[in-house]
Amino acid sequence: MKQKNVLFMTQAAMIAAIYVVLTFLANALGLASGAVQIRFSEALTILPFFTPAAIPGLFVGCLLSNTLTGCVPLDIVFGSIATLLGAIGTYHLRQYKWLAAIPPIVANTIIVPFVLKFAYGIEPLWFSFVTVFAGELISCGILGMILLFSLQKNAKKIFPN
Q1: 136 and 105 Cβ atoms separated by less than 8 Å
Q2: With 90 as the cut, is the pLDDT of residue 141 above it?
Q3: Angstrom distance (rounded) from CA 118 to CA 78
Q4: Residue 1 binned pLDDT confidence (cut-offs 50, 70, 90)
Q5: In whole angstroms, what is the distance from residue 79 CA to residue 133 CA?
Q6: Based on C-alpha coordinates, what's the Rg of the chain?
Q7: Which of 34, 67, 91, 105, CA to CA, is 20 to 30 A from 116?
Q8: How far is CA 17 from CA 75, 109, 128, in A?
């Protein structure tokens, strides 16, 4: 029983750390700012397809990333909640591989535009819906699915039960 807890916590911590590193990489390359934001770290939101440890890992990774990159408190809280909801949704849809990226895309597309409006004053709201959706489609829908198919072959070794 203790081995399972240690494995779970280790996987969650590693996912959180990788999320932070990938967020900083996207920021350094200038991809995480502007109208359409591409966070490589958002590709990791498909990981609950493989392990439930990804749910807290993604939440903590997003919370740390948003904090360390200087986001305002509203963004730190609600951006992280969007990632958490997307991760939970992916975990619940894990029987359907092709739907794994849908929950994080939807959660972020619904929540983040309001964060952009109320935390940063970015208008118009409809434009934020379009640009957030585009960024999430690239990050989760394309990069995330590439990651899913790349990991699937060795999933039992990478994410043992």
Answers
A1: yes
A2: yes
A3: 11
A4: low
A5: 14
A6: 15
A7: 91
A8: 19, 24, 28
CA distances from 140 to 10, 117, 134 (A): 23, 22, 10
Q: Quickly name the fold that domain 2-158 has.
A: Arp2/3 complex 21 kDa subunit ARPC3 (1.10.1760)
Domain boundaries, the chain: 2-158
The answer to whether the CB of 8 falls within 8 A of the CB of 60 is: no
Query: Which two structure tokens, joined as six digits, stand for 48?
Result: 């609950």
Summarize pLDDT for 31-84 with one digit per residue, the tens: 877 778 888 999 999 999 999 999 999 999 999 999 999 999 999 999 999 999
3-state secondary structure at position 101:
coil
Residues, the chain:
161
